[in-house]
Each structure stands twice: as structure tokens, then as C-alpha cells.
Amino acid sequence: MQASQKTRDRDQLLAHILLFVTPAMFATNMLMARATTDLIPPVAQAFWRWLGVCLLLLPFCYRELWHHRAALKRELPQLLVLGALGMGICGALVYMGGATTTATNIGLIYSTSPVMVILLSRFWFGERMSQRQVLGVTLALAGVLFIILKGAPDALRHLSFTPGDGLILISSIAWALYSVLLLRWKSALRLTARLAAIAACGVLVMLPFLGWETIAIGPANFGDWRVSAALATLVLVPGLGAYGTFGFINQHLGPSRTGLMLYAAPIYTSVMAWLLLGEAFLFYHWAGATLVLCGLFLATHKPAK
Fold it and tell me: For residues 58 and 196, is the Cβ–Cβ distance under 8 A?
């Protein structure tokens, strides 16, 4: 019993640490969505990314998948929905949106997902929030707004949005649904096997769209080393890395607190754009980042009793 409690405490600690690491991996996907708009067709990018994840995971979990084949058949409708939401809509639409919006805008719009997750969890499943969590959410949201408005409230009048922003908004709603359903729909599979199954279902859902895109636009050019490098990055970092750690955090902290990590997306995106693209990291980024991180701490840390 004591060993079991120690294991739970260790997993909780790891989940809290990963809460601040995982957004960096998701931010990589946002930067890649912008950087690869003229390199890889969007559905092909999402399809090959998740096929790669599935193929890499299979050697580690094929025995479990075979052993639980009856459960797989029973859970197939749920797995298809999760694959469509998490891999299809949250994959292809982000890459489509990257053609007409910036990586920073992608991060900012995606940071609305925690609010959607909290509302879904509260009104759909009756999940309660403490006053401390409400304060943390408020601080984190204030930090995001501070970054969006660049520290100047009158900038609200000059905000502009593109068709790509609309696609990213749809994707962020799909992500909120994915986050909540991932925890609410119980599975006989462990984390790695379930991710492999969801990825496989996402690939299956995207297959007809890939066929249409290939006829209309053409296939991905694998003869270009940049295509292979981009897809390898997507498979390993925002694919295996981000979704794997996200599932672990979601399992141990719940969807509301896990979703809060997306508030950090604008910070990571801005820092990575500063480091990789030479964009300025200004005072409002620092101020907004401070508010977001303080909010995340309040919303996710349980004080000792």
C-alpha cells in the first residue's frame, strides 16, 4: 500500500514537471505548421506524421494490442472519434491554417483551449473547481491577453484575423473535446498502446482525404530532404513526445488542469520564434509569461494540508 502511494506521488510529481515541458513540444508543431506551408500538403503532413508515430510505437505494444483485440473492437468507435479529433482535425487543419496565419497566432488561438476544456468538464461532466484554481485560470488568461494586446489595451481595436485563424479555432475546439474524452472514455489499453491505436484510427480517418488531396494537389515530395526532416521532427517531437506526455499528464492530473498547459503555448512559441526566427521577445512577453506561469502554478499545485 505504501509503495503504491509512493508510485502515485512520483507520477504526480512527474506529471507536474511535464506540464511545463510539454507545451514546448506542442509549440514545435505550431512553428512547423508555418514553416512547411509551401513544402508539404497539409493532409499528407498530418497523415505521414501519425503513420510514423504508429509504426514507431507498434514494436513496443503490438503484444498488448493483440491480447486486448476484443477490447479494441469494443472501443473502436471511440478510438475513431479520438483519432479524427486529435490527429485529423488537430493535425491537418493546423497545417491548412498555417498557410494564412502566423505561428504566434496559432499559439495564441490554441491558448483558448483550456477555457473550453474547463467549461466542458464543468458543465458536461460536473467537474468542480476550487477558488485557487479559478484564480490560477484568471491569471493565466490575463497573461495570454497581455501578450495578445502587447501590453496596450487599445490594441484590441486593431486586431485582425485571417481564414487560417478560423481553422485554428476549429482545431482548438477539437483539441478541447479530445482532451476531455480521452480521460472520460475509459480504456482497457495502457498509455502507449492506446496512443498507437488512436494514431492508427486517425490515419484511417484521414486516408480518403489524403486520396482527394493527392489528386487535387499532388503527393508529398519525399525526394526533398527537407520534407523527410520536417516529417521526422513532427513524428518525434509534437507526435510521440507531446501526445505521449499529454496522455500521461491527463491521466494523473485530469483534463482541466492538463488543458491549462496550453496557456503556455504563446510563451513557448514566442521564445522559439525569437531563438529560431530572430523575432523580438519584448517586455509584454516577459510580463505575460510571468502571469501565465503563476496562474499555472496556482491552478495545478495542491497546497500541503
Answer: yes
pTM: 0.80
Tell me how far apart the alpha carbons of residues 89 and 79 are, in angstroms, rounded to a whole number. 14
274's CB contacts (< 8 A; 6+ apart) are 280, 281
Within 8 A by CB and 6+ apart from 235, the residues are 49, 52, 53, 56
- If one compares 77 and 290, the residue with the highest pLDDT of the two is 77
In order of 11, 21, 41, 122, 137, the CA distances from 297 in angstroms are 17, 14, 39, 20, 10
pLDDT in tens, 128-173: 767 777 787 788 777 777 766 666 666 666 666 678 878 888 998 8
What gap in Å lies between CA 224 and CA 220, rounded to an integer? 9
